[in-house]
Every structure is written in structure tokens, then in C-alpha cells.
Amino acid sequence: MTSLSILSGGAAQGLVASLTPKFKEQTGFDIAGEFGAVGAMADKLRGGTSADIVVLTAALIADLAREKLVATSSISDIGRVETALAVRDADPLVSAPDAPSLRAALLAADAIFVPDTKVSTAGIHVAKILRQLGIAEEVAPRLEVYPNGATAMRHLAESKAKQPIGCTQTTEIIATSGVRLSASLPQGCDLSSVYTAAVTTTAAHAREAQILTDLLTSQEQSELRTRAGFLDARN
User: Fold this and answer.
1) In this structure, are residues 112 and 85 in contact, taking their beta carbons and an 8 Å threshold?
2) CB neighbours of residue 21 within 10 Å
């Protein structure tokens, strides 16, 4: 069976999975590829990894367009994704309406599950917030860092820690069994990133890549995007 090759940020993994049956019905193609930290996925494309379509932050897609690695005419926004807190299903929700309460919640956790703090959208932001709150050194021994948010959330779900917490993108939290969305990050500590799809300039299956882009961004799939954790990119 022929497959469409994708390189995508982990934020879009759940949405892509939910659309895979419809895509296969329309094209006969499966979807294969990698989902991970956006910086790592962009570097894979730059390094020559074969892909028909990429789904990354709008800023990275713009960079790849300037580098002539994606077709400018194919670029389409999917939606915004917020970075938020997560807890295990059985744990009480943690709220963080302001910076002091977020600081207290992070200090109270005996394990903090996050994606890569150097190349992932949420991980880079978490590292910034820990410095901003003045607790980076104090909580460093408790950080549980994984290659991407989905992996971090799976490990949070399985954690034996007494009071663990996670921080990654809402879509990755929603898509992971065993954890639940706890709270958005407060104003001043928040992050909202627009995710965008684009067909690569070396796509072997450009037509099918455009069909997937259309599915990801179509008005007909707006409810599915909302359930997956995407917000309207225009707001």
C-alpha cells in the first residue's frame, strides 16, 4: 500500500490520526512518517529526509518556504494550539490563574513532565517560564524531559510519583490516555502557537499531500479540530 510521508509536530498527531480513515477513503493512501518536536522535524527535512507534507508552527513553515523546501502556494493554517498543564486522570486538577499560583503548582510537584526544552515548541516555552518564575534551578532535578509532548504525557500517565504534573500542548494532552487537561497557563506565562501545513517542494505525492492539507484545514472538519484541541487561527 502506498503511503503519504509526513513530518509533523506532535501537536497535530491526534488530528492527523482522526482524519486518516477519511484520507484513505479519498486517496487509497495510508499516512506514514514522524511526529515530534517541531525543530527536530524541520531539521530532518533540511537534512534530506523524504516527506510529502509537513505540519509545523507557522514560523517554521515560513522559514522553510524561504529556504524553498515547501511550496508557498500550498501553505495553509490549521489552527492555534495552547500550552497547558496536565495531570493524571486520578489526580485533582491543578489551576493556575496567575503567575504566583503557577509557580506554587510547579514547586509542589515532585515530577514535572515536559517535552524537549531545546527543540519543541512547548518545551522551549516551559524552560523560559521556569526562568521567568525564578525556579529553574530549584525544579531542575524534578524535570522529566522527553523527545516530544506525546511521549512526556504517556510517561506522566504511568508515573508513580506522588504529585506529578505535565506541561505541553493541549492537543497532546487531549490525545493521551491516562492524563487530562488541567488548566491553561496564566496571562504572561501563556503560549499560543499557530500550526500550519505545507506540501514539500520534493513531494513524490503532491496531489495527495494537498488533499490531506484540505482535510486538515476544511470548514467541514472544524468540529474535529476543536475536539482535538485546536483553536481558530484567526482569533
Assistant:
1) no
2) 9
